[in-house]
Write a structure and sequence with these properties.
The protein is built from two helices and no strands. The chain has a domain of about 35 residues. By secondary structure, the protein is mainly α. The N and C termini lie far apart (about 40 Å).
Length: about 55
Amino acid sequence: MFSKKRYLYLSNEELGILLRSLIRLKNSLIQQGRYTDCVDELILKVTNCPTIYMTA
């Protein structure tokens, strides 16, 4: 029933772009009067994801 877990490795810049895009999508859905439950879940997952700091 459940599929395999997928992992996504993003830099801080990419993470910021993803979060801004999700917020923009949520605002658009609110303006259209549609549900935002799925987008809300993704925003929570992105903001609560573990981060690994790498040095060059």
